[in-house]
Amino acid sequence: MDQEFKDGKDFPLFLDNNDPLGHFRQRFYLKKGTIYMSGNSLGLASIDAVEAMLNLIEKWKDEGIKIWNVDENKYLLYSSNLAKLMASVVGADPDEIAVTDSTTVNIHQGVSTFYKPTADKYKILVDDKNFPTDRYAIDSQVRLKGYEPKDAVKIVKCKGRFFDEDDFIEAMTPDVALILLPTVYYRSAQVLDMKKISDAAKERNIMIGWDLSHAVGAIEIDLKSLDIDFAIWCTYKYLNGGPGSSAGIYINRKHFHMLPGLAGWYGNKSESQFKLLQDFDHRKDANGWQLGTPHILSMAGLEGSLKLFNEAGLKNIRKKSLHITGYMMFLVDAKLTKYGFAIGNPREDEKRGGHVCLEHDESYRISLALKARGVVPDFRDPNVIRFAPIAFYTSYEEVYRIVEILLDIVKNESYKEISQKRNLVV
Ligand SMILES: Cc1ncc(COP(=O)(O)O)c(C=O)c1O
For residue 72, is it within any domain? Predict the structure, then answer.
């Protein structure tokens, strides 16, 4: 699909008919009359994910406590079983991945494990545009070590619309002990050059972790070749694991000997776990960073949804994602910029993630007008509407229709009929 984009309502139909991933759309629960654009916040349910969830419920009904041991301890070892399905999605060995807890808990886990401040090297390097939970976790972790965030948290400020990787490298002074950055920015969709930043950190003997939440399932990631220290990610966005599905954590195998910053009995070696001894016998793989009993009701969706990723392949998913978001940007440029819209994400393929970021002074009211017309985008203060055409289930025809709806809303100024008063959740 390397042809130039064209305007007109036949062109998206042509693209849909020639979409090698088009058949996956039938595996998702799509709502009639709705165009779903929020798969970067909460991915849609697939038949496969729901089947895995129902299967788990049946096992619970039938087996009670024996559920842990059915199918060769499938649910007792659910984290490792799901890690096998997750491995190709993040480019790591299965034993370097645990599917456990929430993203925020895993940030605490990663930071508390790898942040070993000394008198001369005690700062954590972050940026000023990441999703705030990362910052809250880091501030609290430095406080736990007896430092004040205003001294020990070093913030790289975004100088323009996007970050320049060299600004992070310049900030890697000898007093920096650890870095935590997002791979893809949740608002601008900028993709940072993980290799450039990670290599620079390694050269300076600085530990580095990445938050892959907006990258995983959208762009290709090869943690093995990056050789970073740790990574964490959400599974309910592009991975379609379901609301609040358990998160992922990657621990580079060279660190398996370390003790987790936060320990719990599920991080104990399986052989001795049920001996319930008082001394922690640390399991020497990423599952040694689990805490308590796995939240299997929050993990089952992933068993189904990750199968789809292995079937489709990340390379093909990224290819379609770049193409369909490219098509959306083409239509925006052609039809909407004259009505005050601007594209807020980078233009270069290697620098943009899975969503299109549209800016407009009236974004809030326009996003509500879109909702009234059956489109589900999301709004981010102060002026951004995010659209995530998802490789698995968004059609080119839907993208075409959204741009037509937007055009109608701004041409007729129908958003002006909507109150400016903000809802609590947008
Ligand atoms: C970069 C990033 N990290 C973490 C989170 C959320 O963490 P949690 O799943 O713990 O709520 C988000 C949520 O959107 C995010 O964008």
Answer: no
Q: Which atom of ligand 1 is nearest to the CA of 103?
A: 10
Residues 272 and 325 in one domain: no
Please report whether residue 422 resides in a domain.
Answer: no
Both 287 and 178 in one domain: the answer is yes
242 CA distance to ligand 1 centroid (A)? 14
Testing ligand 1's pocket by substitution, the residue of 40, 100, 108, 131 carrying the most ligand atoms inside 8 A of its CB is 131
CATH number at residue 401: 3.90.1150.10
CA-proximal residue: ligand 1, atom 4 (nearest) = 103
Question: What is the residue-level pLDDT of the chain in tens, covering all 426 positions?
Answer: 445 899 999 999 999 999 999 999 999 999 999 999 999 999 999 999 999 999 999 999 999 999 999 999 999 999 999 999 999 999 999 999 999 999 999 999 999 999 999 999 999 999 999 999 999 999 999 999 999 999 999 999 999 999 999 999 999 999 999 999 999 999 999 999 999 999 999 999 999 999 999 999 999 999 999 999 999 999 999 999 999 999 999 999 999 999 999 999 999 999 999 999 999 999 999 999 999 999 999 999 999 999 999 999 999 999 999 999 999 999 999 999 999 999 999 999 999 999 999 999 999 999 999 999 999 998 988 899 999 999 999 999 999 999 999 999 999 989 888 877 776 655
Domain that holds residue 101: 77-311
Based on the domain organization, do 319 and 307 belong to the same domain?
A: no
As a whole number of angstroms, the distance between CA 218 and CA 224 comes to: 18
